Amino acid sequence: xxxxxxxxxxxxxxFKALAHPGRLEVACLLMSERTHTQKQLIExxxxxxxxxxxxxxxxxxxxLLTATRHGTEVHLELVKPVTVHLMDAVCDxxxxxxxxxxxxxxxxxxEVSSHEA
Length: 117
What we know:
The chain contains 6 helices and 2 strands.
């Protein structure tokens, strides 16, 4: 059975979406489960709303996250298990000796930068 070329294009699109450092940062924050809304992302990252919305849009268009409006808030959730498994695989590759996860590393970096501000 030959693989469908569309499957390769879709997979490449998923990797392309996560290849951008900003989108990877958004995914890390959403994995931490401390951040659930677009407003929280904007506050955590200190980025303009338009930048956060652009990254969310790309992740949504690739099927990696869902966004649901509740009143004035937009609640975000990574589509599991695909995104979580991909992020875990990247973390295992980046930190094979320690098993450190991006979410822990990002949290630590964010806490340091918050104290310096």
